[in-house]
Amino acid sequence: MRWTLFMRIAFYPCCGSDLILPLRLLNGLADRLIFCDLRQPDDQVWRRTLRGAKTPGAPSPKFVCSDATKALRELECVHVLFYRNDSTGEGGSALRVWNRTFLLPFLERLPDDGGLIVTDGSNCWPKLFRRMNRPNGVELYGWHLQPERALQARNHGVFHSKGASVSQLVWLNVRANRKDLACPSTQIS
Predict the structure, then answer these.
(1) Angle 49-8-70 (CA atoms, 0-180°, nearest 5)?
(2) What is the pLDDT of residue 79?
(3) How many domains does one find in the chain?
(4) Cβ-based neighbours of 115, under 8 Å, separated by 6 or more
(5) Residue 56 and residue 90: Cα distance in Å, rounded?
(6) Which of 10, 37, 57, 143 is the Cys-Cys partner for 33 at CB 3.0 to 4.6 Å?
(7) First to last CA, the chain
(8) What's the confidence (pLDDT) of residue 62?
(9) b/e burial code for range 54-64 (CB count within 10 A of at least 16 → b)
(10) Torsion from C-alpha of 153, 118, 137, 111, nearest 10 degrees
(11) Cα–Cα distance measured from residue 9 to residue 1, given in angstroms and rounded to the nearest whole number
């Protein structure tokens, strides 16, 4: 008998040194979390990240030192996009995740049953972010993005290293309006 396993992939572009908290937040929602940044994290931070990944249900971390758009295009399928704490100012990546050049390749890599976006609205136009956060969500490029209120509870009681709450994160359920937009499921044999 041959077993086929499905691996749920999460992608975090422009992560900087924000490595531990995403593992906790995505516990049980992803099997692998691919962190991506132009700069490699220092060894001590990465060792702490690997220790954090030993928590039952935590995704297995992988770091890719690359341009975010290029790294995304190299992935066959992605189930979760995690994106926060970025800006267009000094020290930020200026990555426009909500632009067609990044968002469409992500949407094209979602499995048939859709996926999830976890964001604080970094580098997003305020009007679009408000629309995404409405109960009925928003349509973008043939996809429906709608807040997943059941997952919002994951924010409560969770703090990042500087002590600030992460309650500003929005969990968006993403579904294709047309079946031909989604990629096939990722399989590992």
Answers:
(1) 75
(2) 96
(3) 1
(4) 78, 79, 80, 81, 174
(5) 37
(6) 10
(7) 11
(8) 94
(9) eeeebbebebb
(10) -110
(11) 26
The boundaries of the domain holding residue 19 are 5-188
**What pLDDT is stored for residue 72 in this prediction?**
95
| Consecutive H or E run containing 49 | helix 43-52
Residues 6+ apart with CB under 8 A from 64: 34, 35, 36, 71
CATH number at residue 68: 3.40.50
Q: Specify the residue for token string 């632009």.
A: 99
- Lookup: tokens for 72: 């995304």
In this structure, what is the dihedral angle of CA atoms 58, 181, 108, 136, given to the nearest 10 degrees? -60
* Mean pLDDT for back-to-back runs of 10 residues, the chain (189 residues): 66 88 90 92 86 85 93 95 73 73 92 90 82 90 87 62 58 77 44
| 164-170: long-range pairs with CB below 8 Å, 24+ | 166/21, 166/25, 166/84, 166/120, 168/120, 168/121, 169/25, 169/84, 169/118, 169/119, 169/120, 170/118, 170/119, 170/120, 170/121, 170/129, 170/132, 170/133
